[in-house]
Amino acid sequence: MKDKVLFVTKGGEQCDEGFSYVRELAKTLDSGIEVLIIYPSRMTNDFDDIMTAATYAEAGDLKTIREMVEAEQGAIKKMVEQKIGGLISGSGETQVDLVCHSADGDLTATIKGYLKNRPYIDMVLLSPSLSENKKSFDIRKLLKNISKPIVNISRPVAAKL
Fold it and tell me: Per DSSP, which regions of 72-147 are E strands?
């Protein structure tokens, strides 16, 4: 099996951020790409949604809360599927073997579990979108739990004039 690099990104509008770098690296290394899009498994942090859920919980209407969570997860999954489709169609002109997957949950545990059955992955590349939230992303924890080389792609710094 051909060696691959793993591009890990967060589901959302910026999930393809850093992918052009990964695509060029894969072309240079003559390797394939596996994309792992991780989306949140918990309800949004939007204040209005949290207050709405709290109101329904106080009223004992758990069915409505469950429906809200399922609707939100459905919307996230749909957006992830659209982004995966965009990554696949965008890789067509570069002749790179590309496989996309999505998952939810803890970043470190998800990556570790994903790599467990994929010894052909040589390197893990982390999207800049992952480091936006310092609470959910701990690079030291990731380095302790994953034995593959890890590259944290950063956003370009704007030049100061």
Answer: 98-104, 121-126
